[in-house]
Design brief:
Elements (H helix, E strand, L loop, with lengths): L1 E8 L4 H20 L3 H13 L8 E9 L4 E7 L4 E5 L2 E5 L17 E4 L5 E5 L1 H4 L10 H11 L5 H15 L10 E5 L2
Helix pairs in contact: 1-2
Length: about 190
């Protein structure tokens, strides 16, 4: 089993960095204790909620790839919809619960998908979707999906870099938000 995680803290600067840093280490502990990503998010949400301020929110997507069962199980705490190419079909990985620290008692569902050889998981922050042209046209999920289909057979690292480059080009180099892309191909 391999866990793949992406998240985004609200705000900018030191406070957002501290929130993300704390979450990372607590999350690692919960991933070792619980097999279900939904339960991991519930535990993390309850833990972080004890010290959260009203401005502390975190989106997070946790995916667990089981290489023996050929599955991908994920849960998403308010994170923007991400994507997978499974048997060359585009699958949206939507949110399965609210942002972390929004409601200490929130529940998070897990979803399981087949994930076999050559399937691809692409995780990103909302900075990719929201990269804008000077006319305020977003890069958007449709462009991301088209890019994934076009580059479906390439290596994961090249695909992540080309997707990032396409968004930067779309925004003429002027990104308003941080942007992260993480791609994992099953071999």
């Amino acid at each position: 089993r391999i866990a793949v995680v992406i998240g985004d803290a609200t705000g900018h600067g030191v406070e957002a960095s501290i929130s993300a840093f704390q979450s990372k280490y607590v999350l690692r502990s919960f991933l070792r204790r619980f097999r279900d990503p939904g339960q991991v998010l519930e535990e993390l949400n309850q833990h972080l909620g004890t010290s959260a301020g009203p401005e502390d929110l975190l989106s997070l997507l946790v995916a667990v790839i089981d290489t023996q069962a050929d599955t991908l199980r994920y849960a998403s705490a308010g994170h923007c919809a991400n994507m997978a190419l499974i048997e060359r079909e585009l699958v949206m990985l939507g949110s399965t619960g609210p942002l972390l620290m929004l409601d200490r008692e929130a529940s998070y569902a897990s979803r399981e998908l087949p994930f076999g050889k050559e399937d691809l998981l692409v995780l990103y922050t909302d900075g990719l979707v929201e990269a804008r042209t000077s006319a305020k046209t977003q890069f958007g999920a449709e462009r991301i999906g088209s890019h994934l289909r076009k580059e479906a057979t390439g290596s994961a690292d090249v695909l992540a870099k080309s997707l990032l480059d396409a968004a930067v080009d779309h925004a003429s180099g002027h990104l308003e938000d941080d942007l992260t892309v993480l791609a994992v191909r099953r071999r």
